[in-house]
Amino acid sequence: MLHRLKEPWTDRRAGLLLGALACSVLAVIVFMLVFIAIKAWPSFANNGLSWFSSKGVVDQQFDAMVNSGLNPSAADYELGAWPLIYATLLTTFFATFFGLIFSLLSAIFIVEFAPERIRRVIVPVVRLLAAVPSVIYGLIGILVLAPFIGNSVITAEQKSSVQFVIPLSGTGLGVAIAVLTVMITPIMIAITVDGLHAIPRAWKEGALALGVNRWRAMWTVTVRAARPAIIAGAVLATARALGEAIMISMVAGSKGFSPNPLDGFVFFFEPVRTMAATVVENAESINAPAMQSSLYALALVLLVGAFFLSLGSWIAKQPLKKYGTRS
Amino acid sequence: MSVPTRPGGTAPPLPPLPLPRSPGGGGRQGRSPKKKRVNESISTWRLTDRIGYVLMWAAGLLLCAIGIGILAYMAFKGVQYLRPQLVLTSPTADVDQSASGGFLDPLLGTILITLIGIVIATPIAIGAATWIVEYGRPTWLARLIDSGIEIIAGTPDIVIALFGLVLFQQGIFGWMSFTAAGGAVFGRSFLTAGAMMSLIALPMVFAATREGLQSIPIHIREASYALGKTKAATIRRVLLPSVKANISTGAALGMGRIAGDTAIIVVLLGASLTLDPEGDVPGLNVLKGTGSTLTSYVYNNSPAGEGNAPQKAYAAAFVLLLIVLALNFAVDLIARSGAKTGLETSRLGAR
Known about the structure:
The complex is a heterodimer of chains A (327) and B (351).
Chain A: H1 2-6, H2 11-47, H3 58-67, H4 82-113, H5 116-131, H6 134-153, H7 156-161, H8 173-198, H9 201-209, H10 214-225, H11 227-243, H12 246-251, H13 275-281, H14 289-317
Chain B: H1 47-81, H2 84-88, H3 104-135, H4 139-154, H5 157-168, H6 190-214, H7 218-226, H8 231-242, H9 244-260, H10 263-268, H11 284-288, H12 294-301, H13 310-334
Helix pairs in contact in B: 1-13, 3-6, 3-9, 3-12, 4-6, 5-6, 6-9, 7-8, 9-13, 12-13
């Protein structure tokens, strides 16, 4: 049989082999979903829909899970993950919101208005920002931004106004949003730039010929036509923001706390912990079964969320295809 | 010759429209004549337009400032704290920071994990991309795999890490990591972490390869068939060699992503500072063992981790940044010819 392997490959065999490699990707996704769902099941089964609600202090619940030993009772699984979900939604929403404005303006600048000399700087800068590992963003956030905010921005009376609820130290929602915005901006810029380039130039030139200025032609014609790409970029960046674990766990203060919008501006200084950050911080104590199941439940929620965002970005990109672009 | 495209190599992909813009980013001069300055004054614009215009300039300059600021700050801190003996000594657990050693082992760990990840990812990605472009039947399966890879690209790394943990704690993967006396598999080792890292790199190699294959004109394949080559031989002898540059681009990007990933390391590589071999087969014992990488070293030495030695964290982060930037620079060198704007989404890892 061995000598047959030395013969040149037939098309059929090559096709089957390559097809098998390609299908292994699907197998990985299926396995991922199944394994994580199996591990997550006890947590959902013991909590029901109240898993998504807020009940008690979430950090105490995690402590109880770690201490529950190898044979946890049903009560040990008790978890109300709302503070973590709320923190994830807050960071993701604000980062995407600010990132969308920032990246749209930057993309217009890069495509249309930037002088050649600045463009030669800004393009490598965007690629640099995309390449910097998240742990370095986290390091800068925790060693530069957080002390700055803790010492100079938060006033003493702001600290004392909430001191019985939560101590403020500088790490918190605001720093997390700021760093996360910088992290997800490059992706949005890249996709938006692609989209703006894909719009036929004649459309904008038509507007220019009618006498509007360059900004208005860009804004009302090209940007409007590139809306699908902008939305697709935002959705993809949302998925990035949703899953960011390391940076958030470093700069967001790491407390299972729900910031209260009624606190006014202090809202942005209050510490949070997102779902992904919770998983990465508690990875050490994953051997306690109750803890393990809860962490896998968080991962399952993230996985399903990311799945739908991938789907959303694919759907959002469809209208662009009619202009004959490939991306 | 009625076919205008040059044979061999990658034909330039047709831009949607001939854009009369000067080349961005690449720094190549002389292709287009000097742009005529339009004598415009924004003072005649409407107020809303002027506000938008000013905001746009502000955003662009702020972006430059952030990027240059981060780079300059890391370089400053790196030069300040990086000492040769930091790179050359192994870390030891010690409360006294002057005695806790350097980060030789994390550096080796980063190199090792990057190699394992890319070695696993590249063949699968090339195979999948080749199959989708060259075979791709049935169509629904090809589409499914295409979107499957998009889903993997969008999956948070922490989810991939947890998946790796449960997968490699199954009994049949016992050979990849430490197995306790009772048969419980530890699941954490260089092999398991590298295998999961390959999922991070896979979408990039895949996208780059597919893009390259799609841009090869059909008559190249037809010429090969006309010489009596089979499809398999065409792929191996003609198509894959001509997308070598694309594959290297994707691989370099993927390696950058692997080297910078932290969550998978924290969950899947165990928590030992030094390379901690497991078993007695030379070579395999390191792969089966646990360790750390630069990312986990930075994480542990930041105020958020147990070590809390910011100076070492800065030094290690600087080395890590250098590695990642070197890989990105390699991408530039390889792909210099193909870039239109320098901001192609596939080069930012955004699919």
